[in-house]
C-alpha cells in the first residue's frame, strides 16, 4: 500500500464531494484501496494493518531515516493531497489515522456518525503559510487586494487565513474575487498571471518565491500553529487497533526530535523522497516560526479550534455554529507525554 496517492479528483470519482462534504454515493472504487483489512477486527498486532494517511515528504515517511524500528504490525500508508481529504477518508472508514490542520474536522463535525477524533497536537511552523503576490505587484498590505483575484484552498488553513485577513482589513468576502483552487492548480494560475494574490502553504511557497513572488503577509499572529493528529473513533474503540495507534503515535513523536536536530539533513532526506530541491526545504526550516513538537491535547488547543470554528460560522462558510469539544479524544494522551 505504500505510495498510493489520492487527490481530490480521485475522491470525487468515488462519489465524495468536498462541496457540502457529503459522503452520499461513496463507492469502493478508490477508498477501498486504503482498507486492506476491510472491517475485520485483528486478533493481535501481528494480524493488524494500520491504515495511515500521509503527505508527500511528510515526517511519517521517515521512520527508517530517524532510526525508528519497524512496528510489530503492518503499515499501509496512503498519500493524500490535503487534510480535508483525510478527514473525509476517515469518515468513510477507510483510514485509522491522519494529520491535518485545525480546519478539516470542523467541516465534518456535523456529519451523522462522524468518525474523526482529534488525539494529539503538533505545534509547528506558521511562517510557511503566506499571502503571495506576483513580482511587481503594487500591493503593500492586504487591504490593497480589494477587488482583486485571490486564490485559496477551500476548507484548509488557507481558507481561514483569508477570512481573518478580510476581517482585519475591514473587507467582506464580496470585496474580493475569491478563487478556490488546489495547491497545484493555484501555482499554475498564479504563475500565469490569473491571480493577483494567492494564500498558500508549504514548500510550494519557496518555489513561487524563487520565481519572483513576494510575501505580502505570513500567518504569524493569525494561525495558532496547532496541527492536529486524528484517529477514527472505531479504531480507538477496538482494543487491538487502539494498541497499535498508541504505539504508532509514540514512534511518530520521536521523528520530530530527529527533524529538529538537523534541518539540512531533513532537507536532504525530503529532496530524496520528493525530488523537490533541498534548498527549498532548508529555507523553510531556517525561516520556521517554531520547532515541531508533538504532544497531547490540551484545553488551550480545544479553545483555539473553537475560535477557528466560530470564525467559519460567522462567515456562514458552515451553516451553524459547531461545538468542537466532542471531536477531541484524550485516550492516546499517555503515549504522547
UniProtKB/TrEMBL annotation:
Species lineage: Bacteria, Pseudomonadati, Pseudomonadota, Alphaproteobacteria, Caulobacterales
Listed name of the protein: Aliphatic sulfonate ABC transporter substrate-binding protein
Sequence similarity: Belongs to the bacterial solute-binding protein SsuA/TauA family.
Domain Solute-binding protein family 3/N-terminal residue range list: 49-270
InterPro entries for the chain: Solute-binding_3/MltF_N, SsuA/THI5
